[in-house]
What does this fold into?
Amino acid sequence: MKNSPIGIFDSGIGGLTIAHSIKELLPNESIIYFGDTKHLPYGEKSAKAIQEFVKNISDFLKNKNCKAIVIACNSASSVAFDVVKENTNNIEVFNVIDPVVDYVNENCNNCNIGVIGTKATISSDIYSEKILQKNKNQKVNSLATPLLAPMIEEGFINEEISKTIIQNYLNNPTLKDINSLILACTHYPLIQKEIEEFYNNEINVIDSANIVAKHIKTKLNNLNLLSDTDNSENQFFVSNYTKSFEKSAKFFFQEEIKLTEITLHQ
It folds into this structure.
């Protein structure tokens, strides 16, 4: 069981930032990644639609004998975490929200916290609810930034157009006077440097990818589920293949990878 793969999924390829952090921290682990590129972006979909997509994906990963499943998508984590847990019995399930909430409350007290993400994540208000449940003295201001993910997928990074869009969002009065900013979308680590530059490196920009990877390592270690072989294998699947996705996937995972298109049973 300990040498079974870790299943990771996202609405597209943004979750490969999580996969990359997991592989860096746990190089012996095998990974099966699924990007639901046929239905992206989840951030614009209803909770019911996301839950249906996620049920089919978790069935696929369960049938691949994954020892753990990582919901590497904030939108799916916010509205479908319970669906995955109920659908996968004894498989350990991780989302990208709870480890970040724990990090914030362990490292920040009486903070003014900003959250940026997709419409689905922000409208769920899940970060604010979970952070305030643990510490009512925190202040949380959330802002939907729907143009950022497609901008990143199209490769507009560190250019005038990306700087203009980032500045327009971060200048929003909602984010005034924050001292910490949660990047509540798995695409956003790729523009973390530009965001830090906007704030002159004066606020704590919280990248979920490394936090989630560390949390998974600790949990799997406690459960005695860390792989003890160095014969790891990575597989990458998508529900709709294009060459542009494969090119972007390499950019997100920071390694050469091959995408395989599969159709999930509806």
Observations:
- The beta strands are 6-10, 31-35, 68-71, 92-95, 112-117, 139-144, 180-184, 204-207, 234-238, 259-261.
- The mean pLDDT is 93.
